[in-house]
Design goal:
Elements: E1 12-13, E2 16-18, H1 22-32, E3 36-39, H2 46-53, H3 55-65, E4 70-76, E5 83-84, E6 96-101, H4 102-111, E7 120-127, H5 128-131, H6 135-138, E8 151-155, E9 158-163, E10 168-183, H7 221-225, E11 229-233, E12 238-241, E13 246-263, H8 271-281, H9 287-302, H10 326-344
Parallel strand pairs: 1-11, 2-3, 5-9
Antiparallel strand pairs: 3-12, 4-6, 4-7, 7-8, 8-13, 9-13, 10-11, 10-12, 10-13
Helix pairs in contact: 2-3, 3-4
Length: 345
């Protein structure tokens, strides 16, 4: 039986826009909370211009900004074909991680440009403040605040399993071609998500191989396929992805560079921490109890009018239910500091 690639199934294209301003991005694109291709957003970057001349030229551009830092790098055997994933028995992974000087990473990639079976090399999410501190000065991103730190991703061909980011993301292609397959957050139950606390790069990932989809093993994935969208990006293009959208990423070619910007409204850490606590405290309760607690969470957190849940209480007595403010946040932190030790004993 043939296990098709997601690309054979012709997912519908992600919408695309040209000449996006900061105002349009903030007021309309982010508000809509849908992925959008920002065609040609960074086409004027010097890094993109260098990439148009070839791998050696973009490597030279990056070397000129390098300050000698090491970057965590995935290394995989050629037979992995760039699919950085669990080992077949899930006891470990099919790659190793080494700290490699950024310049040596570039040199190794250039060495393998014409190799018929190159080893897999993939260094991701390296903060440019540590590796290429003047990158933003030379390559300006017009849609985010200046304090958002760009992350650089460098490697050869790679397939990154569907996963989500907790922050909004703008991913900008400098060199090579990248294809994204995206799924909306509500498809989580159809994606066969792997472990939360044991995964390749920090976030849980789908166990489905999108280049060889086995519906006999993952039958609910057929429903996810119906919602899938594709974005193909070339140098100078970018993709906006709202937080919690699942995305599979495939980079092709022997020398790929991407720079991304994660930005969010999170001020008190990752909601994954709250999820972990809920798994500890709530998931083991009887069904009726969980249903009752769902109504409590809807009332205080998820309902459209959740912010009004304490309007009937005099303001001076609302405590942790008050509207968000530094004073309210401090009360919640004090409450958690007092209560959590008993939970975590």
């Amino acid at each position: 039986m043939h296990n098709p690639s997601i690309f054979e199934l012709n997912p519908r294209p992600v919408a695309e826009l040209n000449a996006v301003s900061r105002t349009l991005f903030d007021q309309e694109i982010r508000h809509a909370a849908q992925p959008v291709i920002l065609r040609g957003l960074v086409k004027d970057w010097p890094a993109v211009a260098a990439a148009q001349s070839g791998p050696e030229q973009v490597a030279d551009h990056l070397r000129s900004l390098d300050v000698g830092a090491n970057v965590p790098t995935f290394l995989a055997r050629p037979e992995v074909r760039g699919r950085y994933f669990y080992a077949p028995d899930m006891r470990g992974f099919n790659f190793e991680v080494r700290d490699v000087p950024f310049r040596a990473l570039l040199d190794k990639l250039l060495e393998q440009l014409d190799a018929p079976t190159p080893i897999g090399i993939y260094a991701g999410a390296s903060p440019t403040t540590q590796t290429l501190p003047t990158f933003s000065h030379h390559n300006h991103m017009p849609l985010v605040d200046a304090d958002v730190v760009p992350k650089v991703w460098v490697g050869n061909g790679a397939q990154i399993a569907p996963h989500f980011d907790i922050s909004d993301n703008i991913a900008c292609v400098v060199s090579g071609v990248r294809r994204f397959i995206v799924f909306p957050p509500e498809q989580i139950s159809n994606l066969y998500v792997g472990p939360i606390d044991y995964n390749m790069a920090g976030q849980p990932a789908s166990l489905v191989d999108l280049n060889a989809i086995d519906l006999s093993k993952f039958p609910k994935f057929e429903q996810a396929i119906e919602t899938a969208m594709i974005a193909e990006l070339h140098p100078g293009d970018a993709l906006y992805m709202p937080s919690l959208w699942w995305h599979f990423v495939e980079s092709t070619g022997p020398f790929n560079v991407l720079v991304n910007y994660w930005f969010d409204m999170l001020k008190h850490g990752s909601p994954m921490n709250v999820l972990a606590l809920a798994l500890l405290v709530l998931r083991g309760l009887p069904e009726n109890d969980r249903a009752a607690w769902r109504t409590v969470f809807d009332h205080y957190i998820f309902a459209e009018n959740a912010g009004e849940s304490a309007e009937h209480i005099p303001p001076e007595f609302r405590g942790v239910l008050a509207h968000q403010s530094p004073e309210r946040d401090q009360k919640i932190k004090a409450f958690l500091t007092a209560q959590l030790p008993a939970v975590l004993r």
